[in-house]
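Quarterly update from the structural biology core.
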Amino acid sequence: GGGEAVETAWKVAKQFFKLTGKPMKHKVISRAVAYHGTPHGALSITGIPAAKVMFEPLVPGAHKVPNTNFYRAPEHGDDLEAFGLWAADRIAEAIEFEGPETVAAVFVEPVQNSGGCFPPPPGYFQRVREICDRYDVLLVSDEVICAFGRLGHYFGASRFGYQPDVITCAKGMTSGYSPIGAMIASDRIMEPFLHGNNSFSHGYTFGGHPVSAAVALANLDIFEREGLNEHVQATGPDFRRTLEKLNDLPIVGDVRGDGFFYGIEMVKDKDTRETFDDDESEYMVRGFLSKALFDAGLYCRADDRGDPVIQLSPPLICDQSHFDEMEQILRSVLTEAWSRL
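Predicted structure, tokenized:
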């Protein structure tokens, strides 16, 4: 699955630089609160300390930079584009601090999942690409969540106009009907592996499994036949507008995301953006919201790996009637949640 794809990508990055005469390049840069998987390497890349504490020490060499949560921007909170460039420049700062000769890859999601659907500000990925080129660092687009229609494109990199060196993807390839994961590398990354006796000594028991491959091909045929990417592109703005109606609720601080992938951040004070303390968040997210939303007929995620959010990733065939139903359920349950605080 996705964790194995991320693990594979880090190993490819390390070996690529060994094969091309830069054997010291092995470290990775990723973002705070980002989730990249549970195998030891992928968990090291993950930016959620609580997810790692019971399994440490992990793989050394994974370093974190700020994410693109504009709602809680520590700098340039009044200028989205300037904030995006500031956040991207923190990657260059981390590479310089660690030493460019030691950094192999930057792992980023098109829209960061954990923390509540952080989309990239305008120009962010273009600056990240420039930074990776400047320091000869691979740009890995972790698309386990975002690929295959979630943002209205086969890959989120296409949605935001950047060219990665490596893409990791997984469940969306089969729409979750069969387990699968993939690591896709550019011709440049593949080239040194093709010479002489070079090989990539890596694999999984069920790698290339014919059943999952057949399910993926059938799933992608449906994407083409039913125009699912085009449908998300056409209706994604309607989904956003419908969810933004919830901004009139006192508990809703921010509605953010892209395509068919949105997060709603909940706050204790809308004016100051004060969040909930740990006990309040525990009660609200696990004690009330998760069950209440499920009982009301909405399958979604109430999560507090960052600040407390509700995350929505509806089926790619949804239309305005479904958006309206989601908004009504959310409005009812969030209103009750506020009354219980």
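The chain has a mean pLDDT of 97.
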